[in-house]
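Reply to dn_fold:

You asked what the input looked like. This is it:
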Amino acid sequence: MAQVPNIENLTVNPVEVADLREVIAAAVYQSPDFLKFHEVVDGMDKKTQILLDDSAGKAGWKATGCAPIASGGMDIKLSQLYWETAIIEDTIEFCQAELNANFKPLVNKNAKDRFGALEDQEAINVFIKAKVEEYLKAALERLIWLGNTEAANLSDGGNVVDTVNVKFYTAIDGIWAQAMAAVAAGTTPHFNVTRNEQATKALQLALKDDEAFAIVKGVYDNASPILKSDPNAYIRVTPAVYHGYKNHITSGEFANGGFSEKVINGLSTVAYQGVPVFTSLLESKYILEDFVVSNGGSPEVLTYDFPHRAIMASPSLTPVATINQDDFGTLEQFYVQKERKSYVRFDFAIDAKVVRPDLISVAY
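and this is what came back:
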């Protein structure tokens, strides 16, 4: 029975890395956890038009004779957005001596059913796939939801903490940046979360269960009738809202009310009025760790930047574009003997859009 190799002997040839590109891309873009929030549009390697049909009005009057009918009630309007994918690139460094102790557990976790029978090269591929997939999923979620091309550090007048490089956020405008801009423009309905306005971080985080319920209800009530009727609609909330909402509907007057859960792919999911309610620990981690608001004073008082958030949308309203959802642009690996380090370099193209901000609903 083959043993999982010591990572000091790690080598990967270009053909195997090319195969891994496709495996990792499928695991990221075709993951159910990704698709429940986003439609994926591929082939976007340059600025590409998104044509939106904003037509309205009515058609059809009773005929009254030979004269043709022209009611003038049909108002055909077309508007446009543009996909402008950004190329995201980075390099993962593996120090052989430091990672060797963690190599076998990671391979075992990701290939438990055939761990003992893995050949050396297979084990290495499992390891690389697991690590690159982990970082790519985190990068995509960070950019898609929290990207902001105008992000700046606190010392430069922005809300990104000074110890975080803003380049992690400035590649694209993510969904929250677009949604908040649409709220400011009066296009997207907004439910105000008063807990976010508290004067200290501790008070901000002290969200009550009934407040969490009000946030979920508010974001649903403000949503358009079209979105409420969409079978793919979702409500995505930060973790404190999610758990507070669950506590409220299972311990109060709404317990067993019939509208607090929905079965998706055979699994019971928390819901409101039949719309599934999801959360993301990773997005919340970035919000709490990487963003702050300065309230002045001496010493300076810092609070969180909207720690409690919710959005109701559907995958078709928050799509993501890339060049090829079946493959990544680059995934190459090389080993530098002098440094005793292995490197995996990757890049991918990404953009995110709120295509109809008038149909979504947000709370923050």
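The first helix runs from residue 14 to 29.
Hope that clears it up.
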